[in-house]
Amino acid sequence: MSENFMHEDLVKTKITYPLLFKRLWPYARKEKVLLFSAIFAVASGAIAARLIPALIGYAIDHGVKEKDYSIFTQVAYVYLVLEIFRSCFSFANVYLFQIFGNRMLFHLREDLMSHVQRLPMQFFNKTPTGRIVTRLTNDVMSLGELFTDGVISVFTHIVIIISVVIALAFISWKLTLVSLILAPFFIAASFYLSNRIRDILREQKKKLSLINAFLAENLNGIKVVQLYNRVTRNRELFSSLSTDYRDTNMRSIRSYALMQPIMNLFNAATITSALYFGGLLSAQNSIALGSLVAFLMNIQDFIPPLREILEKYQQFQNSLTSAERIFTLMDEAKEAESELLQAPEVIRGDIEIRNLNFQYESHLPLVLKNVSLQIKAGESIALVGRTGSGKSTFISLLQRFYDAPAKSIFVDGLPLERIPRTEIRHHVGVVQQDNFIFRGTIRENIGLGDPRIGDEQIEKACEKTGYLAMLKRTGRSLASPVDERGANLSVGERQLIAFARILAFNPDILILDEATANIDSESEHVIQEATKEVTKGRTSIIIAHRLSTIEQCDRIVVLNQGEIVEVGSHAELMKAQGLYYQFASLGLKSTLMDASADGTAEP
Amino acid sequence: MQSPSDNSLLLKRPLWYYIKNNPRAFSLGMLFLVVTNALDGVYPLIMKTAIDQIEKQSPLDEIGKTCLLFLAIMSGLAITRYGWRTHFGRFHTFAAEHIRQKLFHKITSLGPNFFHKNQVGELMSLLTNDVQSFRQAIGPGLLILADGVIIIAVVLPIMITMNWEWTWKTLIFLPLVPFLIWRVMRLIHANYKAQQDRFSELTGVAQETVGGIRVIKSFAQEDNRTRLFNGVSSAFEKACNKVARIDALFMPVMEFGVTSGSVILLFIAKDDVYSGAVTIGTFVAFHRYIQKMVWPMTALGMGFSYFQKGYASFDRIKEVLNTETDIPDNGTYVIEKFESLEFKNVSYKHKGSSVYVLKDNSFSLKSGERLGIMGPVGAGKTTLQHLLSRMYPLEEGQILINGIPLEDIQQESLRKTFLLVPQEAFLFSESISDNVSFGLREKASEEEILRMTEIVDLSKEIDSLPHKYDSQLGERGVNLSGGQKQRLTIARGLIMKTPVLVLDDSLSAVDTKTEKAIEEELAKSHSTMSRIIVAHRLSSLKGVDKLLILKDGCVEAWGSYAEVLKVSPTFQKIVQIQGQGDHHE
């Protein structure tokens, strides 16, 4: 167990509170009505609360002293109304701010989600999925808590404190000054204590996560712990972690307990001086008794909001972390687009590659070297080569997941970088080796929830690939549920879904990364047929592993270490007795796949 | 740890158990609480005196004296408040720590059967969330209940003494408050659960979007995906709003008591104040007391809700603490020197299942012998080894070591004699060297660790790591490949030098060269004389003295290579596929 556990990932965007407001403002602005109603509720609630002591004071001074019976009854009614108002405002204040906060978070999440999906593939290769998901969910929620529990609460309580001070000064500024003379001292003391509590809280959290990590590991590895006679020793380890945590808990309890007396003494000091000097003023007749009572009632409302603020202060002093993480993600650069975009109406599917050199990062070696190739519309090309020969990179470039150097790839004579990403991706369809399957129904997995893809199209696509027949045979339909990651589907079925996707979306250029995984012979046959179906009538580039697939293609392109070494038909290449001949004679599947089936060269 | 009667008290009356075990903290906490509330109850009275004095224009030094008294009481309050918080805090913090350790102790004593039934996630939640909510109940829950009761006991008499009629008239709605608060808290709890469910959904969609980003980008589905995300995002927002709405109700409900009381007071007090029968000081003090009654009422509702939750948690804790281990460690026999192992008609089926995993297995192993076990997947090989390590209870047949039944042998001694290197390679988030010496009482020397990793052909790979043998494993540290992990677990087993080494298909991850190195190491070892090797590769079983072929839980054959080859169709098939090789001498 080490410090490694506490390692935080890199935060590039530093956030301060003013900056946080600035960055949240665009989202807050969308809900101005809610925001201002909430602020209105806070202010009104504060005013209503301040009117109550004034009312009581008025009742004492005018009702009791002047023996005016009617005033007293009126006051009672007004008091009732004020209290009802105050309760309503108190409810409205909390509720409005909360729904405002939730709305704002909704907008933030939407923006973040849409931003994330437009980040370049490099980002996803480098960042673990869990981390990105946490930004979108937990971190946004923590930011919400910081906002509603922290920022808003502090704001509300500051308004209350200000209203109290105004009310006090309004009654007697002299008395206010005398009563609150010690305030700076107490506030300073409690801020000092707050800082200490914050440190303890941080330590507490750390210790708890140590306990959790220890537990997770020991329970998951319980068998090893028991087999190696480590139970007693690990109990001792746990015991020390547990008592350590307990002692930190005690420290935090003691510090919190110290906060209380400070506030109590502060309270005592203010009330005592208010009483004593109030008595003094009253003796000089410079303050009416009712006003003094009102003053005393007001001053007792000074401490609780202050305590609230201090409590939030320690809790939220450190919680800008989630905001920093969120905005670091938000500041990640999206996939760059050039200025001169041209969206072609139709694409025939001519592809030309001219002296293409490509490397992922400037310090990394070239993945593709001086590649030149012309593919005519409707032609099918088999791409053959060992793992790491640059096949996957080639595909990624065609879909603009990475940008090739300018003017090295042309589609229908147009430089690829000038065609917008979404546009080119509409025209270039890809079937990967392992196609991601979403939770939902089979239909949703084929149409991907795109409103342009109708049910009929989906059905037709499934029929053509033979998937519909397979579903019927197993007593399922397109509405059958699909588990997370397609866990309830076979490898072959997942392939067929990917094929159906292609047929439904009907791209002009098809890229197919043939699956290397072993599929049962029945599915294998269906897939072979489906492959013929999807390649029909469109430019197809197939990373092929099976001889049967390769033989169907018009031309074979052999890649070796990023270079095109051979181009030709099966018969031609066999005759040439070059690299392809070697592959084919040794058994294609085993030579092309090496050990790793998913060996992409992406860094 | 504790005597059995102690234990039953804990399970029956946990609160009483902890009071008995920590009487000082509990009684001091209570004492401070009572004093706090008494002082807290008195101080409005002092305020009343001061105001009355001011009203009557009493001499200033008299007012000053009252003020001093007020200050003294408040200072006393400051001390007693600190006192009850720390003592009470000690009470529940220590109790939580005690139960956490007790749970861990219990859980680690239970066998695989328990872990099949209870997932790790649930157990984690038990050890953290449930312990926490139990603490909430006997800590803050008990505290605010006591606080509420004491305040009522102090304030109510004062109010009644001041004015009986005012008291009952103003407090008439107050008993509703605890009930309302309890309802609101239950509502919050239920809705919070719903909110959690929506949050899981949100996480699910986010996870799939990021995981399937390639497909989404490929088909330019970003906007559609965002729309889908917005759907669950907005459902989550609505669930949050529902919680917020109930949350916002909390304060008004709490204030309902005070509001109603104060308004009633104004209506009924006017005659008395008007006639001068009651002083203004009394009026102000009474008003303050009404306000003081709000908290105890709220406290009753909250405390009750804490208790409900805490006891539900304790029921779950109790269930685990009550679990009888199915492999009790009652044996007294300590294995001095391993002589023989014998399986006698051993049959086994998992708890609650009617299907036998092992049927009537008999074989034996003498010190110095090497036994190879082969058989198809599901033949019962792993179960057999787990029975030998006494992870499962044996109900039919007998396993004898040196002629002594397994149940009569001290568990630690048994596991020191037979070391099972399990199939799945589980390592800990410690350094590599700590992982290798995991089972040793004292950390092995550097050379020894180096030697072991060399044998399993891992030393070169470790040397290329930035921190070498000090490299931390796990999520935040170095990630080893599956094969590397497996080899590390073999090193972890080899270093133990137990008399019998049991390898459950661990050799699948090593090449034949490493296999040979391991074999050589074991051959020259003076401590590990016997071994049991489960393997799928014939090469892994090179040089074993005897072979045991399992099929469908039965011993298909047991004997030398030649004997087994003669009678076992399963083995014949294996040999046919993998080739004769140079196995038989």
Describe the protein.
The complex is a heterodimer of chains A (603) and B (585). Chain A is elongated. In chain A, strand 9, helix 19 and strand 10 form a beta-alpha-beta unit. The N terminus and C terminus of chain A are likely disordered. Chain A has 603 residues and is of the alpha/beta class. Chain A has 23 helices and twelve strands. Chain B has 585 residues and is α/β, with parallel strands linked by helices. Chain B is built from 20 helices and ten strands. In chain B, the strands form two sheets. In chain B, strands 6-7-8-3-9-10 form a six-stranded mixed sheet, sandwiched between helices. A four-stranded antiparallel sheet of chain B has the order 2-1-4-5, with helices on one face. In chain B, helix 3 packs parallel to helix 6 and helix 19 packs across helix 20. The chains are: A alpha/beta (603), B alpha/beta (585).
Task: Note the topology.
The complex is a heterodimer of chains A (603) and B (585).
Chain A: H1 17-29, H2 32-64, H3 69-116, H4 121-126, H5 129-171, H6 173-179, H7 183-220, H8 222-227, H9 231-283, H10 289-299, H11 303-316, H12 321-330, E1 351-358, E2 368-375, E3 380-384, H13 391-398, E4 409-411, E5 414-415, H14 421-427, E6 428-431, E7 440-441, H15 442-447, H16 455-465, H17 467-473, E8 481-482, H18 491-505, E9 509-513, H19 521-535, E10 539-543, H20 547-552, E11 555-560, E12 563-568, H21 570-576, H22 579-586, H23 588-593
Parallel strand pairs in A: 3-10, 3-11, 6-9, 9-10
Antiparallel strand pairs in A: 1-2, 1-4, 4-5, 7-8, 11-12
Helix pairs in contact in A: 2-3, 2-5, 2-10, 3-5, 5-6, 5-10, 5-11, 5-12, 6-9, 7-9, 7-11, 9-10, 16-18, 18-19
Chain B: H1 4-12, H2 14-21, H3 23-55, H4 60-108, H5 112-117, H6 120-162, H7 164-170, H8 176-211, H9 213-218, H10 222-275, H11 280-322, E1 340-349, E2 356-366, E3 370-374, H12 381-388, E4 396-401, E5 404-405, H13 411-417, E6 418-421, H14 432-436, H15 446-455, H16 459-463, H17 482-494, E7 500-504, H18 512-524, E8 530-534, E9 546-551, E10 554-559, H19 561-567, H20 569-578
Parallel strand pairs in B: 3-8, 3-9, 6-7, 7-8
Antiparallel strand pairs in B: 1-2, 1-4, 4-5, 9-10
Helix pairs in contact in B: 1-2, 2-3, 3-4, 3-6, 3-11, 4-6, 6-7, 6-11, 8-10, 8-11, 10-11, 15-17, 19-20
